[in-house]
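Hi Q.,

Before the meeting this afternoon, I wanted you to have the manganese (II) ion prediction in hand. No need to reply - just skim if you have a minute. The sequence and ligand are here:
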Amino acid sequence: MFTKDIYVQRRKALCAQLQSGLLLFLGNKEAPYNYLDNTYRFRQDSSFLYFFGLDEANLAVTIDLETGAETLFGDDIGIDSIVWMGPKPSMREKADRVGIAHVRPMADLANTVKKAAASGRMVHYLPPYRYANKITLMDLLGIHPNEQKANASEAFIRAVVALRAVKQPEEVVELDKAANIGYMMHYTAMKMAKLGMLEQELVGVMEGIAVSNGTMPSFPIILSQNGETLHNHSHHQILTDGRLLLIDAGAETNSHYASDFTRTIPSGGKFTQQQKELYNLVLEATDHAISLCKPEVPFKEVYFAASRIITEGLKGMGIMKGNTDDAIANGAHAMFFPCGLGHNMGMDVHDMEDLGENFVGYDDTVTRSTQFGLKSLRMAKALKVGNVMTVEPGIYFIPALMDKWRAEKVNTDFLCFDEMDKFRSFGGIRIEECIIITQNGYRMLGSKRLPVTVEEIEGVMQE
Ligand code: GLY
Ligand code: MN
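Predicted structure with the ligand bound:
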């Protein structure tokens, strides 16, 4: 948790952007996974953490924009809870820690919200993503869960995004910590990987490092020799010679700031010539994309620059053909690079995705494409000092997509289907780094860069 002043300042900056009405913040509740008392690890809502820092279930806050009154809603715990779960600070103490003047029992929240709504005041809420909070909102405002996203306050969302997207120094300290934990996770996996091992053995070790140095991985670890599946969460294969192993993982610090790195390594410790060639192409795209990142540069341009390197390289290998710009304009490169280039990162690994990707990554200078591939670009607008981004180009050979496009004759002017077929069991390559945008350009997060060249990776794996 940061000092009280930080939270007070953040709320002041938030309220300065908004006109009138009542701001409603719902903290998260415990989430059961097979029965009520057997819960998932508690994770507070990130906006709640950002403005209040209180990392506990069953809290809500209202801020009255007219009077400035801030009220923390929640209940002091009774003896049963103390016996089973231990004592906790009182509600008054919690409010004092973050500079909130008023404390009320949770049962009073409905009254406060309903009174404001009944008198015609705007109740601003953020789009809920947890079912429990959707039910709470339905009880408070009578809005059906299916309608809640559309009725969320755009002004509130925009104000929160404007603040959270620009990381402050105390947040950058945390993000560097998260990156260093991510380094340990990946470096350890790279050193441990051995033929004959199960993928899940590496996952277990990486999760352990995340838990022992912070709270948990920042998202379910992706670790698979079928790296062509972008978010592959199955880890049941045996490390087999000649295959590539894609590892995409990061950690969340105790203050809930995230990291997110990807490395693709040869399962047996040595890249084949063909793997090396494609790997170096992805590395070139990564390094070039990162080198372009600086204030005022639209991230969409960085995506196109990476796409051009990938397309040129694949043309050189006889997998693509035709004019590079035309191929990209037609989305042909998305056969191999079907995702965006990266995303904002902060307390959420995909920062503020719950608030709506377009509020985070798009503005009135750039609208979201519907074209396959480009539509998955999460960040398109110009970079700003203090933005924290991942940069993660890749090349993937996805048999189902190859078959579909071949059958439907999609982008036949740019794709060499017969040549591509030779890569049906190749898998995928992704390299991912985390950067912060500075006045002059960027800085990579963390104390040092994970091994990334072919020589560095083979060196670590053969130590
Ligand atoms: N590293 C997982 C993702 O960015 O979606
Ligand atoms: Mn990522």
